[in-house]
Automatic annotation (TrEMBL):
SUPFAM superfamilies: alpha/beta-Hydrolases. Residues 355-527 form the DUF1023 domain. This is DUF1023 domain-containing protein. It comes from Nonomuraea angiospora. It holds the Pfam family Abhydrolase_8. The lineage of its organism: Bacteria, Bacillati, Actinomycetota, Actinomycetes, Streptosporangiales. Residues 618-654 are annotated as: Disordered.
Amino acid sequence: MSLYEVVAGDTAGLEEALARVVRLAGDHAGALDSSMRYMAAHAWVGGGAGPFAQAMGDQRARLQRAFETAAAQVADRIRALGGHAAPPSLSTPLAAIPSRRGGYSGMDVEAMTRMVADLERAGHELPAAGGLLSAALGSAGVSAAPAQQVGDVGAWAAGEVADLRRRLTVLQRRPDGEAATAAVLGFGLFGGSAPAPGPIGDALSAAASGDASALAKVVAAQNTGKNPTLAARVSAWWQLLDPAARRRLIDTAPQLVGSLNGVPAATRDSANRAYLAMRKDAIAKRLAELRALDERLAKGIIMADAWRRMTTRREIEELERQQRQIEAVTKSLALGGVNGRPPAFLLALELGGLGKAAISFGDPDKADSVVTSVPGTGSTLEGIGADVARAGTLWDQASRSAPHTKTASILWLGYTAPQLDAGILRADTSVASPHLAQAGAGPLAGFLDGLHATHQAAGTPRFTVLGHSYGSVVTGIAAQTRKGTFADQLILVGSPGTMAMRASDLGVKQVWVGESPQDPVADLGHLPLSGGRHPISGVLQPALPNGPGPFGTDPSNIAYGARRFRVDETPVSGFLGFIGYDLGTHSGYWDTESTSLRNMGFIINGQYHRVMKLPTPKPVSPPSLLPTPPPLPFAEPVSSPLPIPQPSPTPPGE
């Protein structure tokens, strides 16, 4: 029909155009309805579902407005020429399908697959419908802008399909069928890691392109422990990363990938072993160069040569220390895969200085029970062998107690432990100060975040953290930064305190304490140092035995509220034997066939009925050997005088 005929008043062609628009609307205005119903039925809950559903709702409304506008334009044209036409209403309500999943949080892969198929069909059909609509509007001599909008909605649908199909592929590869990890559910299912990625999101995006410096920023952020969601974001990012990009990062920065909480344990192990081998070769080569240089400098006679030789010798000493650290790690890894133990996984490695590492017997991502041991004073990477052996012994015991339970036992030395030769008066490194524990709590919390984020085993895993000696102080602080999410239970052995006044302050379901009656380190928990202060208020405390110590309430104190398990009494000897102490007991909790070792195995497995518990003694009023001191200003009142400090007695049998 020509424009002249339309202007002349012939409305027949316009009515035909309107009918074509209405038919197109009837066929395509509901193109997104099926996908919207799946979302309304909770096919996808959490992890970007809200923003995606909102975006799809906006696109559905835009599609229906486009057809309504198109029909209204043609109807207006008809009425302008004296005809009669009422524009139809093309906005339709959406009837939701009732959800079959009460309380479900995640993605129903089957339902999402059907939704994506419907969305893909809309992506194919709407651009074609837009072309037909454009022709109808053109024949009516009105604007074709609504047709462009219909095509744009189709383009949006097609773009989302590619992204969602890639994510569904990730979920379908998971061993547990429908359910993905909490990390993917929380951060990886829609358009990136978060609606507002921020600096971490930007760093992850840059790292995906191979920027190792960006990855280093993520590692630095995780070690602060300030962001409890970071490991989950990293896990989602890594799972959705292109395999070629993963390989590129591992080849470029194996140490960073191996240190990244949220990356699967098997990948971290592979990356760290590659880094270990690379550093071993590089150090050997560099040492050969430095030793040759040192020999030449030794022959020099000028002062400059002497200064240069001193710096050369320092570098040689540091590299030789790193060689010893590498040897210690290599020997520790060799403890896995023998005598029934699973292979060892190298989950973290930092050479130089005192060094850091995390070694696991068994894959924690696939274990039913995961125990992470945090060692205490004197721990170094060079001497890690003894601590790793204890983790292996713990695995042995737990596996004997529950042979059908898949267990992973981790030794985590991811902090700088205080050294006895550092001086007790230095606030930054002293074993009597919580400073190093506070610095180590962030990395420990982040490490546990990563274990939770990457766990794959079906069912509900049990996470245990075992803190020994000063490591229990680190554990206690870390637990308080992740109340309710840090672990299912804590085991404290030889503990001087957790920087908490009560076990309930730690935010963990169960807190277990084992203390040898002859352990002098554990009894530091109720021996305040000179000038001791309340760990919460900071007010000076009265120097009373069994009161709050430098790290809070002694965990073995009944007032602390922990569950106590039996530890064998050991005959005392040595320097402290005359007052009932023996330093050897502080490291004896893992002794073969010991009651403490058996009890720790039972606790790790959740076999609480088999644990030899200590009874809670009835309150008594012991004779006072000290006068009641006057209350200090603002100090907590002391209810009754207490006896002179003695080693913790062995409680009577149950």
